[in-house]
Amino acid sequence: MNDSIITLDRHILSEQRRYGGRGDFSAILSQIIFAAKVVSAQVAHAGLVEDILGRTGHTNVQGEEVQKLDVYANKVFINALNYIGKVCVMASEEEPEMIAIPKEHPKGDYVIMFDPLDGSSNIDVNVSIGTIFGIYKRVSDGEDGVLDDCLQPGRKLFGAGYIIYSSSVNLVYTTGNGVNGFSLDPSVGEFVLSHPNIQIPPRGKIYSTNEGNYAYWKKGTREYIEYLKSDRNKIKAPYSSRYIGSLVADFHRNLLKGGIFLYPEDTKDPKKTTGKLRLLYEANPLAFVVEQAGGYASTGYERILDIKPTKLHQRVPLIIGSKEDVLEYEEFAKRNI
Ligand code: P6P
User: Fold this and answer.
1) pLDDT tens, 270-293?
2) Which of 3, 8, 4, 7 has its CA nearest to residue 173?
3) Candidates 271, 276, 279: which one to mutate for ligand 1, based on the most atoms within 8 Å of Cβ?
């Protein structure tokens, strides 16, 4: 492999040398990479292999039908991270409580939040799905991590990223020094740098939202979407609507092309009066990535990364993408409170 090709492992090492670090964080990222490769192999076969396709008959803490691949991905990430001695506690969308590090393994200084397989309802229709992760330094003393280590605001993130399992497998991550994207080369089993120094356009031409919720949106949200769909007295062409229904896929497209993703609060479903998406392992990691790429993430009223979490699985409205678009949405939301 010639030296113009930068593998993810090489990139992590160069970041460690450039910005310092004992290698603990790099070891965590290396394990996330390993887990991503394992999950991607199974996702690639999900359409073919009966025993991991379809439903487990169980529901997770979110009350959602758990697909077998969710269960599998959750275990893969937990087992890849719990023995390396760098982590003191984890939390997953698939686990109702915090995930303690088994007593036989040493504990470390980091805290991992993750959604092992977001968009899993799309698995059996072959739509892109993804993993989202956030990495914090612990705030507690003692051996085992505690809830306070998990309930940190997103602005305290030390690193974050996502993996999208699609026509190609991409891993996008930041350690607070910009955003870089890597593509898995299956011929060598390595992630190679494919999207260096990602910067989201300040304004896009795409909006991503489930307009089926229109009747339950607040007035400001409805007015904003109508505004995007109008030609504003021939001043600007209407935005294009693109909605995959898989957060990582919608986010990734908007990150590269520009645009705004909206999952606002709605007034129909009691579980969604504060939005559907989860703060700790969906909104915060993607908010950290998008701000590092020059974008912005908001609830419509406040910056996502400034929210002090109170519960492991708390939900938030998520408005995320090109900064000018998200700020424009805030103007509509705030004048209709
Ligand atoms: P809706 C998938 O279930 C998910 O959690 C996200 O990946 C996605 O953005 C959202 O929910 C889709 O929700 O209500 O539009 O189906």
Assistant:
1) 777 788 999 999 999 999 999 999
2) 8
3) 276
